[in-house]
Amino acid sequence: MNGLAERLQSLSDEALAKIGAATGASELEEIEKTILGRKGELALLMRGIGGLEPSERGPFGKAVNEAKGAIAAALGERKDSFEAARMSSELDDPHFDPTEPTPEHAVGHLHPITKVRREVEEIFLRMGFDVTDGPEVETEEFNFDLLNIPSHHPARDLQDTFWLDSGHVLRTHTSCVQLRAMIARGGKPPIRVIAPGRVFRNEQPDATHEHTFHQVEGLMLDEGVSVADLKGVLTTFLSRLFGQACEVRLRPHYFPFVEPGFELDVRRAGSKGEWLELMGCGMVHPNVLRAGGVDADRISGFAFGIGLDRVAMMRYGIDDIRWMMSGDPRFLSQF
Ligand code: DAH
Fold first, then answer.
1. Same domain as 42, residue 123
2. What pTM was estimated for this model as a whole?
3. Distance between Cα 265 and ligand 1 center (Å)
4. 137-138/246-252 β-pairing
5. Core-most of 166, 226, 324, 329, by most CB within 10 Å?
6. Residue of 142, 170, 173, 217 to mutate, ligand 1, most atoms within 8 A of C-beta
7. CATH number of domain containing 295
8. Is 86 in the same domain as 184?
9. What is the pLDDT of residue 105?
């Protein structure tokens, strides 16, 4: 066999001897590379196969593979024993304390506004409402005109609104989504939607005012919808949100896009406690219905707008709205 078989035998004996004598894992890696590697000694030997008699090639190839298998197995065993030795010496170390807590991992979580928003969505979804939204950059038309807000209304005061050079506005409320929802549904009732989202006012921030905050708009339109429905739906909503039976009180209030319009106050059912002023609501103004393509002679309905930041502040005892958009980990890590 022109000496190839003998060279294979001695190579394999030598390799096994080196593996046996190795004192650490890095030595094993070196042996693996020089013997078994793509350009290693076994590969080199294998190249000589072409010089063999055809009848010898099969048996030689087989012998090389067997040698390879034996060396690989010896390497694996030796590696395992080094690893086991390393582990047991670490475990024997008197400084090793398996009861020591692992370093704490920072796990992300939802923002309080997101939590409250999801709760509100869940409640209305169960009452048959859809969740929808609209653009944060709105047209003056949708934010004001079509909502029956005349140009002399204080809400249009330049002080209150972020105007863009294009003439668009950062929406000052979610009420514009009422119109978008009506139009998207071809003005065809029943329409039951809520629209949570960010809104913007050109305010000097303080403990109760922010330039960026969150509202949920609600709209329910159908034949014969009345103030009784408004009161019923919102009482149910608030009772579920606060986790206790609530009663609500409506006080007349002017909002251009509803008639009549109300401020809604809430308190625990049966309590003689203080009323808490919570949201605006009312029966959608016929001008708004018409702007949304709804037949105002046949269809009526109610709308409401609630501030999510306020609800989250009550829920979690937060005393300053400016925390909400601060991104401050000292605040966020509390939830
Ligand atoms: N858009 C009003 C605001 O931002 C809130 C509001 C009041 C919404 C009455 C309504 C409503 O839908 O009927 O102050």
1. no
2. 0.71
3. 14
4. unpaired
5. 324
6. 173
7. 3.30.930.10
8. no
9. 85
Q: Assess whether 10 and 133 both reside in one domain.
A: no
Considering only CA atoms, which residue is closest to atom 5 of ligand 1?
305
- Does ligand 1 have an atom closer than 6 angstroms to the CB of 32? no
Is 282 within a domain? yes
What would the pLDDT profile of 71-97 be if each residue is shown by its tens digit?
999 999 999 999 999 999 988 988 888
Cα(213)–Cα(321) distance, rounded to whole angstroms?
Answer: 9
Token reading at 70 = 């034996």
> Do 324 and 200 belong together in one domain?
yes
CB of 262 shorter than 6 A to ligand 1: no
| Cis, peptide link before residue 260, omega less than 30° from 0 | yes
Whether the CB of 285 sits within 6 Å of ligand 1: no
Structural domain includes residue 212: yes
What range defines the domain where residue 22 resides?
Answer: 2-92
**Ligand 1 atom closest to the CA of 173, numbered from 1:** 4
Whether residue 148 has its Cβ less than 6 Å from ligand 1: no
Which tokens in the block code for residue 128?
């048959």
Same domain, 56 and 135: no
For a substitution probing ligand 1, which of 257, 283, 300, 311 has the most ligand atoms within 8 Å of its CB? 257
Q: Which of 49, 64, 92 is the last residue of a domain?
A: 92
Residue 243 Cα to ligand 1 midpoint, Å, equals: 24
Is the separation of the CB atoms in 139 and 171 below 8 Å?
no
Ligand 1 center to 25 CA (angstroms)? 72
Q: Is the CB of 147 under 6 A from ligand 1?
A: no
In a domain, residue 104? The reply is: no
pLDDT given for residue 2 in this prediction: 62
Q: DSSP labels for 116-177?
A: HHHHHHHHHHHTTPEE----SEE-HHHHTGGGT--TTSGGG-TTT--B-TTS-EE-SSSTHH
Q: Is the CB of 279 under 6 A from ligand 1?
A: no
* Secondary structure class of 267 (helix, strand, coil): strand
Condensed to tens digits (0 to 9), the pLDDT of residues 95-140 reads 888 888 888 887 889 999 999 999 999 999 999 999 999 999 999 9
